[in-house]
UniProtKB/TrEMBL annotation, chain A:
Similarity-based family: Belongs to the binding-protein-dependent transport system permease family.
Organism whose genome encodes this protein: Mesorhizobium metallidurans STM 2683
Comp. bias (Polar residues): 1-11
CDD domains recorded: TM_PBP2
Lineage of the organism: Bacteria, Pseudomonadati, Pseudomonadota, Alphaproteobacteria, Hyphomicrobiales
Pfam families linked to this entry: BPD_transp_1
Domain ABC transmembrane type-1: 96-311
Residue stretches spanning the membrane: 34-56, 99-122, 134-153, 182-207, 228-253, 288-311
Record region (Disordered): 1-20
GO annotation terms (biological process): transmembrane transport
GO cellular component, one term: plasma membrane
Protein name: ABC transmembrane type-1 domain-containing protein
Cell compartment(s), UniProt: Cell membrane
Automatic annotation (TrEMBL), chain B:
Signal peptide: 1-21
Pfam families, sorted: SBP_bac_1 (PF01547)
Keyword Glycosyltransferase carried by entry: no
Function as written in the Swiss-Prot or TrEMBL entry: Part of a binding-protein-dependent transport system for a sugar.
Keywords: Periplasm, Signal, Sugar transport, Transport
InterPro entries hit by this protein: Bact_solute-bd_prot1 (IPR050490), SBP (IPR006059)
Listed GO CC annotations: periplasmic space
Gene source species: Mesorhizobium metallidurans STM 2683
Family: Belongs to the bacterial solute-binding protein 1 family.
Compartments, as annotated in UniProt: Periplasm
Lineage of source species: Bacteria, Pseudomonadati, Pseudomonadota, Alphaproteobacteria, Hyphomicrobiales
Protein name in the entry: Probable sugar-binding periplasmic protein
């Protein structure tokens, strides 16, 4: 250590280039920071800055335009009151219960279906190269396209029901998309259709990454196929579950456009999600304070779910 | 929250470009009349202006549609980068005027005599604090029935004069195996129909008190309950597949003869025109039964912003051209609405248009011209949307009885005020 220091001390005076070398090395040290600075600044301002701004607005009396005088938590009081108005359901009550139903079913079914499809595709079957893109393709569509296509398909007068009636199965009845109590499940169907192929690809990548030796060892020990997946493969896929969960959770929360394209809000607004609520109130009803408050509540809910999950997953990793 | 971020981005980029140089001989126009007949109608205005040497520049709106345009406008105004004018609806004009960003066209208005020619009820939205801030382009009215004439002849129906007549007519259609009432189950369409139902059930006085003054006694009165009962009655005549249907698809059902009648504003006539159907021979337009003599209106306006002095001449030219009789006639013949001034000759209009113009004039003089609550001309957007929520929940069964409906209506409107 001391020798190194001495060497450098004795060496440097002999080089005339000392100042420029120092500038260069300093530049080199700072380069990553300089390169990162614009995106850092953009993130700070446009993500965190506007989060703070939204929180601020939610405590004002903003209507069409932002107003900057703090007037108290009236927007939250209204949301809180609406939270318990279930009969007839307030728009906010509908939005949050739908978020619960949609979020749970969408994430759960996508994970289950994606894993199942990935395991099937992983059985060294012929034609995998053809099948994989077929399942993956829906992800390439925007929510709007998915929504409109499923809207036509599920419409009793145009799509599935009409076709089956023409084929002779006249007792067939499927009008969920027109039914206030079931319309949210059609959003789940369309959403799952779109995302499960992508989740399958994620699991497939995970499955391909598992060491074949472990599998062979387990088989030699006499593990059945079910045990193999239950005890070895699925636990090994844990990081994939984490990634898939985060991808799905954020897709679920921002599914605004799917609801609009598929249901235009549903009969009597019965398909609303909190994002629809937020947009409606902020931009259509000129109640910016209420819209902001609902956005803040969405953010807090997401934080309350994601942060503990991330914390536990990322901490347990080194174990 | 995501949207808010987008707004923020738009704001910031707007700021950056706020200081660019202006061409004086140019009209910057924010609007969402980009397709079909509306775009063609607007071309008349562009040509009128270019004759006077003013170029026309559309302010681009990503995604089209009124909501996107209003979002874009909000960002532009917040950045201090005003367009010369923007297409605006109802209370939006007043909101912007209250924020102090609208221009003042009073001088032009005086010179052109707008005070006398534009219906008084409309001036509520084009005049703020004694100053003219917007030029109305047209007047739509919503209390219309649109009937397929062939179906009407087949079932031997005649013009219904009362609500009971109307129900009898719908029964006839049902017996003949036609869908009696074409309705799109979206909240604004249901609420637009309810506007007419209230006017028919309670009469002009009641409509004004309940739907414009938001008088609580009227809102929870028996007349209002009766209106909800009547709405429920009408809903029994729609096909089971109505929920979520777009308005123009409902109009298409009437055009094709699958359905007898649609209750819709006069923009529906544009669909008939586009399908080459003629009023009187292919379709019939009647006032909603029991509302003859009154007009429930909404209107498109060009809001005029407080632009720098070097752009004011172009703005005055735009406003003058907008309210010129020739443009009012040419535009509204195409659009299906009626002129926003009552002294335009009706020679170019079809039978429905002529009736619409005569009705508007009479309603203006008789004080029976009312803003449509469903279309945002009866109350500010927060209230109007709360109203639409309640109507839609009633139609789709979340709210089960008329008693519950009026309670909810009073509560929702109170909440939104």
């Amino acid at each position: 250590m001391s020798t190194v220091a001495e060497t450098s001390m004795t060496l440097t005076p002999e080089h005339d280039t000392r100042p420029s070398a120092s500038v260069r090395s300093r530049l080199q040290d700072a380069l990553p920071k300089i390169v990162l600075a614009p995106s850092f600044a953009a993130t700070v301002v446009f993500v965190y800055g506007f989060i703070l701004w939204t929180i601020y607005l939610s405590f004002t009396n903003s209507k069409t335009f932002p107003s900057y005088a703090i007037t108290g938590p009236r927007a939250y009081q209204r949301l809180w009151r609406w939270t318990f108005e279930s009969d007839p359901p307030s728009s906010w009550y509908t939005s949050i219960t739908n978020m619960g139903i949609f979020g749970f079913l969408y994430i759960f079914i996508c994970l289950a279906l994606g894993l199942f499809l990935a395991i099937l595709l992983d059985q060294k079957i012929r034609g995998e190269g053809v099948l994989r893109p077929i399942y993956l393709y829906p992800m390439a569509l925007s929510f709007i396209v998915t929504g409109v296509a499923w809207k036509w398909f599920l419409d009793p007068g145009l799509g599935l029901e009409q076709t089956l009636h023409q084929w002779g199965w006249t007792s067939f009845h499927f009008d969920w998309i027109k039914n206030k109590d079931f319309v949210i499940y059609t959003v789940v169907i369309a959403g799952v259709w779109q995302a499960s192929g992508f989740i399958m690809a994620m699991f497939l990548a995970g499955l391909r990454g598992i060491d074949g030796e472990i599998m062979k060892a387990a088989q030699i020990d006499g593990a059945t196929t079910f045990q193999l997946y239950r005890r070895i493969v699925i636990p090994l896929l844990r990081p994939v579950f984490l990634s898939a969960f985060i991808v799905l959770a954020h897709l679920a929360i921002k599914s605004y456009d799917l609801v609009v394209a598929l249901t235009s809000g549903g009969p009597g607004g019965s398909a609303w999600l909190p994002s629809n609520f937020m947009y409606e109130y902020t931009f259509k009803r000129n109640e910016m304070a209420v819209g902001s408050a609902s956005a803040v509540i969405m953010l807090m809910t997401i934080t309350a779910i994601i942060v503990p999950y991330l914390y536990s997953e990322l901490r347990e990793k080194p174990r | 929250m995501l949207r808010k971020l987008l707004i923020g981005t738009a704001l910031a980029s707007g700021l950056a470009f706020a200081a660019h140089a202006e061409d004086v001989k140019e009209v910057q126009m924010l609007h969402w009349w980009t397709s079909g007949g509306e775009a063609a109608a607007l071309n008349v205005l562009k040509e009128d202006l270019s004759k006077e040497g003013y170029a026309w520049k559309d302010v681009p709106v990503a995604g089209g549609g009124g909501d996107a345009a209003m979002t874009a406008l909000k960002a532009m105004v917040a950045a201090g980068n005003y367009p010369t004018a923007s297409q605006m609806l109802g209370y939006t004009v007043l909101d912007y005027a209250a924020a102090g960003v609208m221009g003042d066209l009073t001088e032009t208005a005086k010179k052109e005599g707008w005070d006398k020619s534009v219906p008084v009820a409309l001036q509520k939205f084009s005049v703020y604090d004694g100053k003219w801030v917007a030029a109305p382009v047209n007047v739509h009215s919503v209390n219309w029935l649109w009937i397929n004439k062939a179906v009407m002849d087949k079932i031997g129906g005649t013009e219904p004069k009362t609500f009971d007549d109307f129900v009898a007519l719908l029964d006839k259609a049902k017996a003949a195996g036609v869908i009696p009432l074409a309705l799109g189950g979206q909240n604004w369409q249901e609420a637009t129909m309810f506007d007419s139902v209230v006017l028919s059930t309670g009469g002009p006085e009641f409509y004004k008190k309940a739907m414009n003054d938001l008088d609580e006694e009227s809102l929870k009165s028996d007349t209002m309950k009766k209106s909800f009962d009547n709405l429920a009655k009408l809903v029994t005549y729609v096909d089971p597949n109505f929920s979520g249907r777009d308005w123009n698809l409902a109009t298409a059902m009437v055009i094709k003869g699958d359905a007898l009648v649609q209750v819709m504003g006069d923009w529906a006539k544009g669909e008939f025109n586009a399908a080459k159907k003629a009023p009187g021979t292919d379709f019939l337009c009647y006032r909603f039964p029991g509302t003859d003599g009154s007009v429930v209106y909404n209107s498109d306006m060009f809001g005029m912003f407080n632009v720098p002095d070097d752009r004011k001449a172009a703005q005055v030219a735009l406003a003058t051209a907008t309210l010129s009789k020739s443009f009012q006639s040419a535009f509204n013949v195409v659009k299906g609405s009626v002129p926003a001034r009552t002294d335009v000759p009706d020679t170019d209009f079809d039978a429905c248009g002529k009736k619409g113009m005569a009705d508007l004039k009479a309603a203006n003089e008789g004080g029976t011209l009312f803003g449509s609550l469903a279309q945002g001309y009866g109350a500010p957007p927060a209230v109007a949307n709360a109203y639409k929520d309640v109507i839609s929940k009633f139609v789709h069964g979340q709210i089960k009885t008329s008693d519950e409906a009026v309670t909810e209506l009073v509560k929702a409107i109170d909440d939104a005020k």
